[in-house]
Amino acid sequence: MAADSNSEYTLDSVRKALERQEDTIIFNLIDRAKFPLNSHTYEQHYATIASILNFLFRNTEAIQAKAGRYKSPEENPFFPEYLPKSVVPDYPFSKILHPGAASVNINKSIWALYFQQLLPLLVASGDDGNYAQTAAADLSLLQAISRRIHYGKFVAEAKFRESPKDYEPLICAQDKEGLMKLLTSERVEEMVKKRVEKKAMVFGQSVSLERDDDDKTNYKVNPSLVYRLYDKWVIPLTKEVEVQYLLRRLD
Amino acid sequence: MAADSNSEYTLDSVRKALERQEDTIIFNLIDRAKFPLNSHTYEQHYATIASILNFLFRNTEAIQAKAGRYKSPEENPFFPEYLPKSVVPDYPFSKILHPGAASVNINKSIWALYFQQLLPLLVASGDDGNYAQTAAADLSLLQAISRRIHYGKFVAEAKFRESPKDYEPLICAQDKEGLMKLLTSERVEEMVKKRVEKKAMVFGQSVSLERDDDDKTNYKVNPSLVYRLYDKWVIPLTKEVEVQYLLRRLD
């Protein structure tokens, strides 16, 4: 969801935005799973460049940076050290976040878990030669996951504004554990995990024209993997962003 | 679907691949429709570059070309005149197509219809400042539509192999109308159009956890627009590719 200057970043509207982002993540999971692993994509020096993934990822990020992508407070680059300046005029994004938000970027953790843990579970083994397309699919999926996780900044801001009196003493004490406990709602988390699992079933089914003949068993991405993605990584890392943001909230 | 060297390009397998590509097109329609029109994306000289769209599109294509994308017989660039050479070693894609296939590229027509006709129907008016993301969404969607339409080369090859005796005299006579008539199956086309409309309903619904509480009316992309996209543009342009391919088939 866009940081429209008219939108209210209430906890409710922030959750609606997260819900919408789930669809994008699942679409991108399905589109990456179209390709097998294609391990040459990730090998150093398979081509006359470092690796196809790194070449494509860093250069695409640089182009998007020049086109203004990272001026949005919702976007966070994976390789900030390589980015050229935007050539696009400033847009009045609403300034809802504390300025400390700019220094919260956990994309290195997201990168590591994606390639080391998620990808091997997501794709079949094999090689179909479509390395550039594979790297582009990795990029889109990683951008969608990163946006979702860093949206934790907006979640934290909304929670803080709802009950500043509860958060302020913990922030003053820089009490990470206390903050983590205060911002955790197991009921909401369980609902999110069940919803993404259901979405994986709905979006990953084979749709046929005959009513009730849709194949609801042979999903394009395993729904339990999507549950696990949120359970083990997306939700914990979002909360990590929330805590990091809150620790800076009174600076 | 990848041009795996073991796969058979029968009419049946080609149609399965087209069916799978429908999902990708609809996912990308939904993801583009997340953003409003964002007309600054398309304006000349809004930024200190020709237009944000052109800058992002041409440079991203160039990076993907260098990473080997256009070595696949399923991929066709929009700006072939700007492409650097691939730096990736050759992959043994199956050589199923006649060499004349390489000269069939109708992306200029696809580009024109996309920006002049489809886009204004797909997105809401407005401006949320996310121009780079908008251009990236246009790129992914155009690539998916282009791949589907140029897959007509494989469709035509499969049809030709099924009944060469029917096609040969029309090809010798360079009879475009005769070829168009021979390769048209209104029954199949109607089925495809109804299926993509249904897929737009399934993938574009709001999924909620409560059974039977999914919102099946407020779709993220109008299903009748997806029907129309296939009816007016995707299917006719795929057949245009088929005819262009067949006219070269006996060269």
Automatic annotation (TrEMBL), chains A, B:
Its main location: cytoplasm. Pfam families: CM_2. Pathway: Metabolic intermediate biosynthesis; prephenate biosynthesis; prephenate from chorismate: step 1/1. It comes from the Eukaryota. The keyword Calcium does not apply. PROSITE patterns: CHORISMATE_MUT_3. GO terms for cellular component: cytoplasm. Keywords: Amino-acid biosynthesis, Aromatic amino acid biosynthesis, Cytoplasm, Isomerase. GO terms for biological process: amino acid biosynthetic process; aromatic amino acid family biosynthetic process; chorismate metabolic process; prephenate(2-) biosynthetic process. Its EC number is 5.4.99.5. GO terms for molecular function: chorismate mutase activity; protein homodimerization activity. Residues 131-242 form the Chorismate mutase domain. It catalyses: chorismate = prephenate. It is an enzyme of class 5 (isomerase). This is Chorismate mutase. It comes from Acacia crassicarpa (northern wattle).
